[in-house]
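User: Watch each token:
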Amino acid sequence: MVKKYLFGWSVFFLVLSCKDNKKILADEMVPEQVIQSFKAVSADRSNIHFLNRVQESENFNYLTYPFIYFGGGVSIGDINNDDLPDIYFTGQMGKNSLYLNEGGMSFKDITEAAGVEGVYNHWTTGSTMADVNNDGFLDIYVSVAGPGNTRKNLLYINNRNNTFTEEAELYGIADPGHTIQSAFFDFDNDGDLDLYVGNYPRSGFNQNNEFFEKRMKQPNLEESDRLYLNDHGKFTDVTLTSGILNYGLTLGISFSDFNNDGNMDIYVSNDFNSSDFLYINQGNGTFLNELKKYTMHTSNFGMGTDAADLNNDGLIDLVQLDMMGSTNEQQKSNMSAMNSALFYDLVNRGLHHQYMKNTLQLNTGVDSFMEIGEMSGIAYTDWSWCPLLFDMQNNGYKDLFITNGMRRNVNNNDFNALFRIQKAYGQVKPEQYLQWVKKMPSSPVANFAFSNNGDLTFEKKTADYGLGIEGFSNGAAYADLDLDGDLDLVVNHLDMKSQVFENRIINKTGSNYLRLKLKGSEDNKYGIGSKVWIYTGEQKQLIELQTTRGYESSVEPIAHFGLGNIQKIDSIQVFWPKGGLQTLYDVDVNELLEIQQEISILPISKKAEKADLLFAGLTPKLVPNYTHKENDFDDFKREVLLPHKMSQQGPALAVADVNGDGLEDFFIGAAKNETAILYIQSEQGSFNSQSEEVWKSDAAFEDVSATFLDVNGDGYKDLYVASGGNESPDGDAVYLDRLYINDGFGKFKRDKEALPKIYTSSSAVKTIDFDKDGDLDLFIGGRQIPGKYPMPVNSYLLRNDSKNGVVLFKDVTDDIGAELNKIGMVTDAEWMDINKDGWPDLIIVGEWMAPKIFINTRGQFLDKSSSFGLTDFVGWWNTVKVVDLDNDGDLDIVAGNLGLNYKYKASRAEPFKIYANDFDANGQLDIVLGYYNNNKLYPLRGRECSAQQIPSLKKKFPNYTTFSKASLTEVYSPEILETALKYEVVTFANSVFINDSGIFLQRPLPHYAQTSSVNAIAIDDFNNDGILDVLVAGNLYESEVETPRNDGSYGGVFSGMGNGEFKTMSPLESGVHISGVVKGIKKIAIKNEGTCYLIARNNMELIILKSLTKS
């Protein structure tokens, strides 16, 4: 039944209500679980026999036209306005086909009569349905590529009688580019539909970085994507004046108002090393490519894209596909080793950080995305083409369907190695190309279906949903083909009949829905570009009505909302593209509603209320300005299989009033061969450097940790700086820590005799009076043995034996804490009285370590971690804080780890492993990282990288295929693995450990805190509710280039609930948005500004967060 609401509207000239701005976060909601599956509809029942077959020949094959396997698309829409969605397929070497929906999943082929089969010798790719002439009937626009030079896109105008007339030339959009997909959208908010044409120039296939840089800087119109302005029903090319002129290898296009300013933006996914484009609409007919501002990295071989609100926070997110295999064998046999020099050449040429994996860009709402593909579980899905984000289960969350499969494994390393050699020796002739192509392996694969768990993660459900049919799939689209209230699927296969999958939701009571058909004004009859919100209690959903989605395809122009158990909609709001807002109240579910736009509705304000933020960025007033500059050192040249650099640990940061004027000052360290700075605060709240010569003279050191303390009892804060790094050999003097004595006026002088000669690359210095003799003693954490990762390192207890003005610290580790010798790779520590006996205990964390607690028994330290239940939590812990989180009177632990958004995964059942030994008996320590894939332990790195460390592996495994199938114990003998140093990580989760009667219980922080590594933590009652909150920041940019860098965090605030649990605060609520690799957070009081936090970042400038809730 169709209900028509013609007048249930209201006009607003004001900001949205508080309900509109309230953040409903993924951590707080769990979607209804629905028993559901898809059933392939037989061709005999559907009458759909479309087959996109590729016929290879000596003159036409992958080696002569590498786009041959790009496949065809699907468009779905009701072409005859009978409420039944019809289907249009495109093919490359045959005719396109149009199927009229006759109900009951039965279709009629009307292609010939309709006149939409395409043009002879035109290689059609994508298609999209849109009402181009605005007569209320859907037209069909077909993209054309192909090997010839007669390419022109096609526009089939609907004659309103199930026939069409091709009129692309008449409308001015017979674009001659090598087009993969096109889309209609309203970019200038004038109400009519404009056109974006995505082209993939043939010249760009498999080119190098220099080529793409040159084309990027000097694009030409012939090879560019095109933007056409709808000018009273005809189209004008505005590519040059709009800022769209570009050079890219376009495979996917998504349209959304990503920054919520009321204007449609464009994301363009580009293949190979051609950088993507994120065109932010400036609202004046022009666009700016702000990809690097909004994203930290993208997919490398960018395929299809889709944009939707995944976590129901009112912000549109983006998924982009790539071609990385889902199994160890596929990854190792089809992906060559990453070349570090080429990767950084790509970055340095302005082509952005690109990685071979699917990416899921989570919109933060503050002009940025957090890439969470690893954490979400959708990063690796083979050679993938078309992503579709839609609610398969009608439970209120967008699930993900992905088509994939490459007709031939053109990236197979063994084939390509043989082909290159034979070609180099003149053994490959053009007339032999077909024979060579047929030697390529061919592996049909299943598509992927993922269920949205509602917490920023997805669960693979391909087999459960009945979508495990193997083949080679390209375009796909969804629609409610049988009008039963759920969304069905149509998939265009290559060399296999296309298929319709009927959605069969069994428990209908938990899968209510609402479908909205928008009836736009005279300029946009289908309301394309409208934003539709529905509100039910505290929950909300947003859909932007865009039909071009995925890859080469378009979906029906209906907004479909899954509702789960919800029985009534509180309100619906429709924001029309040309301006205006309509609101409906108390709407029934399980209906298709038509909403007619009222012409009299006036534009509304685009402004939105801002929440009361906790923090605001504050421009540091520093003289001179400070930027940490990391020295250039290639750790991987010495240790090929090192998981990440060990030479970028700084900067150190410490805060104290060093000159007794009542104002807090701070010291910030420097990398090797750079100069640290001590900043003295003035009465105006600005900072000026002091004691510059002292720091210059010690520029050879790498400053990784620092603390102010009064070492000699004169009442002045002295400075201890820990030295770290990986550049110099073990035992070098640059690893000596340093102590600087304060003269009382904030001027410092190094005391070279006060410290024992400890030549250890350090990580942390922590001070306390551990022997209760009235002076301050020290703990020094040993980080690494340079060049010998991951060998355990000594940490130290230094007792303050200063007398009569002579400062002296003695190493008493062997006497009072011998278990600190070779304890591991320590990253941080805290002093706190865990057992409440009046003596400070020592809590230590580190890489490849479990958190450790050393109980201080009257000055003697023993490792009691096991009695506290901590020994099983081995991780890559970076930082630790100890505080009572749940107000029960005992101390809990907050610890920063690697996070759950990294390539490396770990659990108790399948730990992440490392082995260190001289595997090839050449006198050098070798590293082997092991990971689980499909319940089997494999070496993490591929044949090429592994053989760089141990050359004999190339003889043992003569090709990539054999190596790809070999387990860890087949690559390296069990005997030598048994004698190796071995560590196993079981958790990478950033966590709190709640003290439950002396046993610590792990509670991972919310998923929003798991998007990257946490390197720094601050704990305070930030929102003044009487309960402690947690501020975290981090990231890890030092990974080797085969592993995407850990850059998914902009910091975050997690509001304490008083019981050890935390609620995520979005950046729009907290005001925290910190990019880069954060190494330290320190609280500081700044004159005229109040409570602030210094944020020290590696290789970036210092930033300051000002508390807006504290004086």
Remarks:
- Residues 906 and 986 are 5 Å apart (CA to CA).
- The two ends are 60 Å apart (CA to CA).
